[in-house]
Amino acid sequence: MDTGASLAAIEEEARQAIAAAPSLAALADVRARFLGKKGSVSSVLRGIGALAPEERSRVGEAANASKERIEGFVRERRETLERAAQDHALAARRLDVSLPGIRPPQGHLHPITRVERDIERFFAGLGFSVEEGPEVETEWNNFEALGIPPDHPARDMQATFFTEGGHVLRTHTSPVQIRAMSGRQPPFRFIAPGRVYRNDRSPRHSPMFHQVEGFMVDENVSFAHLKGILYAFQRHMMGAEVELRFRASYFPFTEPSAELDYRCLLCRGAGCATCSQSGWIEAGGCGMIHPSVLANCGLDPERWQGFAFGMTLDRAAMLRWGIPNIHLLFEGDLRVLEQI
Length: 340
Ligand SMILES: [Zn+2]
Fold this sequence. Notes:
Blueprint: H1 3-20, H2 24-35, H3 40-46, H4 53-93, H5 111-125, E1 129-130, E2 136-138, H6 139-142, H7 154-157, E3 167-169, H8 175-181, E4 188-197, E5 208-218, H9 223-238, E6 244-251, E7 254-263, E8 280-289, H10 291-296, E9 305-312, H11 313-321, H12 334-337
Parallel strand pairs: 1-4
Antiparallel strand pairs: 2-3, 4-5, 5-9, 6-7, 7-8, 8-9
Helix pairs in contact: 1-2, 1-4, 2-4, 3-4, 5-11
Bound molecules: zinc ion.
């Protein structure tokens, strides 16, 4: 047999089979068929022993050269197949930038925060700055300095949460008045928004709710300034046609004191369920800061006067978005919050 010719035939057959191998697994089979222990080239090498001695090295060299060339075909084909597999995987993952995007869900500020920021912006326009205080207060700041001694009935109206150290979860934002005025010199123009706590729960009351306090102290501040500012504020919140009513009232820390009502926007004063048939809805309390409160802050009440007002932020949010139950604001239910 002419081993040279048969090696050339084996090599050509291997080249074609390798080029036709459709996958890496098929390529491994083809390689074994020609180069494996029982492969065609190995058989040629095994047959060397039967050859004449002078033929052996020539055939051996030729067989090894064939083997190398076939390995070269296998390597080339493997690279081609691997590149194709990689391209295919990349194509499957390719991003089509011309497709419309998937919009990620977007949150928004809580309704209370929106009302609070709106109020802050309005009062900033009138030269008021924002003052804050802690939610755990001393009894002095929350009660005594505001004219509510331990046996005062106003404490019952603000039935509240006490801590073991004799502190109290503040029942209103008014203690911020004491903090803001003590050790400072007027003129003052502050608003103080924040969380407050009372032992109170009903569809319209939550044990935790939000108030905003506003106060102004100077040498010539009168009730007329208070009315002017509250009118401007309620027009901003409720619209230009809002009608207000000041009703004589009592707070231990203001004198004179008033409740501020606005005419019901739903029935225009005729009476409906929302206004409990009265035609009016409470907007908050206000009055001239009591001289003893000024004195408790180290200010001379003969020289300085001021007004203060307070209202519930939560009620403003409930009105603005028609939320019937205050608890819906704090339960974190996205079905409610996403509607706002
Ligand atoms: Zn009404």
